[in-house]
Specification:
The protein has about 130 residues and is mostly helical. The chain has helices spanning about 5-15, 20-25, 30, 50-55, 55-65, 65-70, 75-90, 105-110, 120-125. It is globular. The structure holds heme C (HEC). Heme C (HEC) binds next to helix 3, helix 6, helix 7 and helix 9.
């Protein structure tokens, strides 16, 4: 097979099987860094601090309402997969055992109400949290 055809096949396969990890690197990693640690204080870390947040209904809602997540060029299912990947990959230690993965439908409802002031909501829900 000519090299061009191989490259074409590989890139088509790559597009069809975009993984939550590659979506994270493409759409979130530029700000939050490939290892999720962010650039505090401007860009918060996504490591360790999100398990507790994902434990409550408001927290699950919040995760998809922050502008970076809500406005990413991803479908609801893709965004849910990225958030679930972040929770498992970077927050497994703080994630409650009862955690149920986010669903596309749930994420779709949340992201439709994008937060104008994420910091305000965070401070109200988790006052004095040192991880932000
Ligand atoms: C342009 C930079 C940028 C991009 C891209 C970005 N974010 Fe963010 N993210 C931020 C900033 C800044 C905040 C702090 C809240 C705010 O000001 O929006 C934040 C906050 C968050 C939070 C809340 C963290 C906490 O501890 O409260 C989550 C969750 C999050 N982002 C997820 C994502 C996901 C998922 C993606 C990719 C789909 C993403 N972000 C893309 C900049 C970005």
């Amino acid at each position: 097979m000519p090299l061009k055809a191989v490259i074409l096949l590989l890139s088509v396969a790559g597009a069809a099987y975009a993984s939550p990890k590659s979506d994270f690197l493409l759409h979130c990693g530029g700000c939050h860094q490939p290892n999720g640690t962010g650039a505090p204080p401007n860009v918060p870390t996504l490591v360790g601090s999100l398990g507790r947040i994902a434990a409550s209904a408001e927290g699950r809602d919040y995760l998809a309402r922050v502008p970076g997540a809500a406005q990413a060029p991803l479908t609801d299912d893709e965004l849910a997969a990225v958030l679930n990947w972040i929770l498992k990959e970077f927050n497994n230690d703080t994630l409650p055992a009862s955690f149920k993965p986010l669903k596309g439908r749930e994420v779709g409802k949340s992201r439709a109400r994008v937060l104008a002031d994420p910091l305000k909501m965070r401070n109200e829900l988790w006052p004095g949290d040192p991880d932000y």
